[in-house]
Design brief:
The protein has helices spanning about 1-10, 20-25, 45-55, 95-100, 120-125, and strands spanning about 35-40, 60, 65, 70-80, 85-90, 105-115, 140, 145-150, 160-164. It has about 160 residues and is of the alpha+beta class. The chain has a single domain (about 35-164), classed as 2,3-Dihydroxybiphenyl 1,2-Dioxygenase, domain 1 (Roll), CATH 3.10.180.10. Strands 1, 2, 3, 4, 5, 6, 7, 8 and 9 form a nine-stranded mixed sheet that branches. The radius of gyration is 24 Å and the shape is globular. It starts with a helix and ends with a strand. GO terms for molecular function: metal ion binding; methylmalonyl-CoA epimerase activity. It catalyses: (R)-methylmalonyl-CoA = (S)-methylmalonyl-CoA. Methylmalonyl-CoA epimerase involved in propionyl-CoA metabolism. Keywords: Cobalt, Isomerase, Metal-binding.
């Protein structure tokens, strides 16, 4: 009858045997990528930018801190799940000065992602031909080691790794 015809014409679904699960096929690293720590924004006027986030948008905004070894002033804007870092040039050789010459009104400068072992991350990334912008990590705005990855190796994004 009809039931027999339906049973014989129904497609058969087979599963293919897999010798390895997906997680087993991903090579393990000695380090692990963590959470987004902050998004950095270069600003031509630090006081105006602080006022926007504090007075207009109602965020908690830190005081400006000079980081001479990086050539920047930093201000952190606290968000619920991450931070914004406002960057302003400090000194003539500031990398933010050259960024602002190309981007007069400012803009996104970099993203910062935490790692659990920055030295292991740098070693492995160099082996994978990802260029780092300094030979050794430097101490960043949070007092922890940081290193920057070349934007041309990261799809146009300047990536900062920070020791968690």
């Amino acid at each position: 009858g009809l039931l027999t015809r339906l049973q014989t014409s129904a497609p058969t679904i087979r599963t293919l045997p897999t010798s390895r699960s997906l997680s087993q096929s991903i090579p393990s690293s000695l380090w692990k990528l963590g959470r987004l720590n902050h998004v950095a924004i270069a600003v031509p006027d630090l006081e105006k930018a602080q006022a926007l986030y504090k007075d207009v948008l109602g965020a908690r905004v830190s005081k400006a801190v000079a980081l001479p070894e990086h050539g920047v002033y930093t201000v952190f804007v606290e968000l619920g799940n991450t931070k914004l870092e406002l960057l302003h040039p400090l000194g003539e050789k500031s990398p933010i000065s050259s960024f602002l010459q190309k981007n007069k009104t400012g803009g996104m400068h970099h993203i910062c992602i935490e790692v659990d072992d920055i030295k292991a991350a740098v070693t492995e990334l160099k082996e994978k031909k990802i260029r780092v912008l300094s030979e050794e990590p430097k101490i960043g705005a949070h007092g922890k080691p940081v290193i920057f990855l070349h934007p041309k190796d990261c799809h146009g994004v300047l990536v900062e790794l920070e020791q968690a």
